[in-house]
Amino acid sequence: MADIPPERLNSGPPFTSIGIDTFGRLEIVTRKTRGAANRKRWAILFTCLVSRAIHIEIVKEMSSSSFINALRRFLALRGPVRLIRSD
Fold first, then answer.
1. What's 15's DSSP letter?
2. Helix, strand, or coil (residue 8)
C-alpha cells in the first residue's frame, strides 16, 4: 500500500484539498402541466481529502462548460481550493 499523501495529513478547513469524480446518468422525473418527463442528469462529486466530506453538484450534460459551471458554483460556496491530481 502506498504512503498517504501529505495533503491528507495536514489538518485545515474542509475542502482545502479536494478530489473530483463524476457519476451518472441519473433519470430525473420533471413534472410539467401536461404530465411527467424523464430527463438525463449527471453528478459531479467533490471530496474533501482531509475530512472525507462530500459535495455533489448536478449537471445537465457531460460537457466541459457544464463542469466549469459546476466548479464555479462549488468555489462560490466553499472558497478557494487546491486540486490534487492523481495518476
1. T
2. helix
The DSSP result for 28-87, as a single string, is EEEEETTEEEEEEEEEEEEEETTT--EEEEEESSSSHHHHHHHHHHHHHHH---EE----
Q: How far is CA 5 from the centre of its chain?
A: 21
pLDDT at 61: 92
Residue with cell 501529505: 6
86 pLDDT tier (thresholds 50, 70, 90): low
Cα–Cα distances in Å, from 54 out to 4, 14, 30? 19, 10, 25
Q: Are strands 17-32 and 54-59 parallel, antiparallel or unpaired?
A: unpaired
18, with CB counted inside 10 A (0-12, 13-18, 19+), is: buried
Does residue 66 register a pLDDT over 60?
yes
